[in-house]
Amino acid sequence: MANSPHTELFKFEGRPALGQAIPLALQHVVAMIAGCITPALIVSGSAGLADKDKVILVQMSLVMAGIATLIQLFPLFGRVGARLPVIIGVSFAYVPTMAAIAKQYAAYEQFGPTGAVGVILGAQLIGGIVAVVFGLFVKKLVPLFPPLVTGTVVFVIGLSLYPIAIRYMGGAGSVKAPGWGNGKAWAVALITFAVAIILNNFTKGIFKMASVLFAMIFGYLVSIPFGLINLESVNNASWFAIAKPLHFGLHFEVSAIISFIILFIVNSIQAIGDFTATTIGGMDRVPTDKELQGGIVGYGITNILGSVTGCLPFSTFSQNVGIVSTNRVISRMVFAIAAVVISVAGLIPKFSSILTTIPYPVIGGATISVFAMITMGGVRLIAKQPLTPRNTTVVGLSVAFGMGFTTVCGEANAAGNLWLPSWLYTAIGTSPVVLATILAVVLNLIIKAKPSDLAE
């Protein structure tokens, strides 16, 4: 590695050549772009926003994602930000709650569609404050998350991403979408997947490290004769636009705030798993207390800024963590370029609209191997501890209840069997990560570890 011309890519302070850095940065952009804007599209639909307001919500998702990423890379005042190679984007974890709030409050005359988004942003502001407080005390909470627990969390994060990739491979973000599962979608997805596997396992240099990007480019080109590319949105998009602060306003509703406080605490815990996966996968170490504190405080501060500028809640993006684990590129320069591109995409609607024309099957086919790397990162963490009966109980039961409970909750909800209160269903019934994390922490505390349960 010391004699490699790519050595600078594997140092956080490294300054690789632009020819090396830009393709790797674009790989991160492409991997996160659809996931970053989709929550805004879902919430827009739930609230019934007009097209111009929908564009603003999507734009600000990109602009603020870039700014939030830069803050994590270059901490404010040396303390607000993790100083780790991560990508920040609008999170799917909040979507069920946001969609429910948007639909409910949009029906009220005093709020309407834009006011409903303002209710979400008001709850987000309070949630961001809670995350800052959580981050300030994270040092005392770190002992609750030893490698066995964080490994379990990272493992479940990876498992929970698989359905997203498979749904994308089928042609849409939902199996209820018209035409989902058609042959064209699966053909493009599998071709893209095959290219990603070939590049990652049978090539060297930039083609190996940017395998996801090149697979997506190839998949995009293949999609053209299949008729999966629609450039109408590009033709209709303007060249430059920016939203004014508080475009949607801020409204503070107690029920929405309570739900968001729960979600922000859970996602602060989940961020520990993502920061750990990043440092384990790219740096062969666990994050320091200062990095965790700065990362979570930065997460809270940027969400407060997002609530004012009209951007929905952020989180660390696990798919980009997976890219770090795959190519082990941690140069801050690479991530900074990605952050600038993401923000520029938001400032120039025509540019951002080009990125959004990447078909779902291409994204799914290229990223499923990335999600697999996240899962295996969790396995590596778990395997660092002896697989004693006590440790396998903690991991096995946490995964079992996390995955099993949320799957059944989703089935019951779809069948109209609303046996949980809506706030509790949102908190523990929609994300396996939440329940798995809670159980892993509790079981790790209740079942005391013996010397034989700890790594030497």
Low-confidence stretches are none
> Percent of residues in beta strands?
under 5%
Q: What's the total number of strands?
A: 2
Main beta-sheet annotation: 2 strands, antiparallel
Major sheet: order of its strands? Answer: 1-2
Query: Tally the helices: what do you get?
Result: 19
Arithmetic mean pLDDT: 84
Span of the ends, CA to CA: 29 Å
Structural class: mainly alpha
What would you call the shape? Answer: globular
Please state the CA-atom Rg, rounded to the nearest Å.
Answer: 21 Å
Percentage of helical residues? 55-70%
**Order of secondary-structure elements:** HHEHHHHHHHHHHEHHHHHHH
Description:
- The protein has a two-stranded antiparallel ribbon with strand order 1-2.
- α7 (183-202) packs antiparallel against α9 (211-223).
- The protein is mainly α.
- 70% of the residues lie in helices and 1% in strands.
Report a brief summary of the structure.
The chain has 19 helices and two strands. It is globular, with a radius of gyration of 21 Å.
Topology:
Layout: H1 18-47, H2 51-73, E1 88-90, H3 95-106, H4 112-136, H5 138-141, H6 147-169, H7 183-202, H8 205-209, H9 211-223, H10 232-236, H11 254-283, H12 289-309, E2 314-316, H13 318-327, H14 332-347, H15 349-355, H16 360-383, H17 389-414, H18 422-429, H19 432-446
Antiparallel strand pairs: 1-2
Helix pairs in contact: 1-2, 1-3, 1-9, 1-14, 2-12, 2-14, 3-4, 4-11, 4-12, 6-11, 6-16, 6-17, 6-19, 7-9, 7-16, 9-16, 11-12, 11-13, 13-16, 14-15, 17-19
